[in-house]
Amino acid sequence: MPAFYPDRIVERVKRSWKLDGIVLWTKDVRNCVEHFGLASTLRIVPCIINFTVTGLAGTPWEPNVPPHAEQAAALEKLRKILPQGAIRWRFDPIIATEDWRERFTSVRECFEQALGEIDHVTVSFPDPYKKAVQRVKNADLSWPGVSRDEARTALSWMVEQFPAGPEPHVRLCCEPELLNIPGVGGARCIDSALFDHLYGTTLGNLDKDTGQRAACGCVQSTDIGSYDMPCRHGCLYCYARPEEELA
């Protein structure tokens, strides 16, 4: 929605009679500073942005995603609007190409140039949805599945890229069987405690959102997205491609 439907976000915020904050997921943050309505909204309404950057922008995996280097200026402007810690990096999903470690390092360096030190990242591994697997096959690529042992090795390597500290540096989304790795913790993309910390809200520890997967750590919220607003990024691994159904 931030990339393609910012007006819908602004419209929904305006007609919300009770609004504690908003959480946005996006692979393109430029409208967050360039679209007048959305940029103005983010200056008023408490907001957390989950910025998904895998380093695959412009490749067959993410053909229409703008490279993160092209978004650096927008990210620096966004940093001046939102409090430190409100922009959160998602290297998600982990597409295990041969160069995935180099991509991880490159993206992190770019983030830190724009935002300062990055102390954690949210990740997951792609689920082999039938349509997604077929899309990858049609593109003459192989599904990037990994074994549990390979996943553990990958997560441990990522943990090692951060300075030692008490908090988990790698936040894993809906992969409970891998949470016993040192330095790895469960992700919470919609986090009421974070809103309280960053904005001084009094949300407390809201209950888990029962509409999400069992291992999801997100708290209760209302999803304002809908399938009448298809994403145009065209990521091969995506489980939500309503334009295919429309076609």
What does this structure look like?
By secondary structure, the chain is α/β, with parallel strands linked by helices. The protein has helices at 6-14, 31-34, 36-44, 72-81, 100-115, 130-138, 148-160, 192-199, 242-246; strands at 22-26, 47-52, 87-91, 121-123, 170-172, 184-186. It has one domain. It has a six-stranded parallel β-sheet, with helices on one face. Strand 2, helix 4 (72-81) and strand 3 form a beta-alpha-beta unit. The two termini are 21 Å apart.
Task: Furnish the topology, listing elements before pairings.
Layout: H1 6-14, E1 22-26, H2 31-34, H3 36-44, E2 47-52, H4 72-81, E3 87-91, H5 100-115, E4 121-123, H6 130-138, H7 148-160, E5 170-172, E6 184-186, H8 192-199, H9 242-246
Parallel strand pairs: 1-2, 2-3, 3-4, 4-5, 5-6
Summarize, please.
It is built from nine helices and six strands. By secondary structure, the chain is α/β, with parallel strands linked by helices.
How would you classify the helix and strand content by structural class?
Answer: alpha/beta
What is the terminal-to-terminal distance? Answer: 21 Å
Query: What's the β-strand tally?
Result: 6
The structural domain count equals: 1
Report the C-alpha radius of gyration, rounded. 18 Å
Strand content: 5-15%
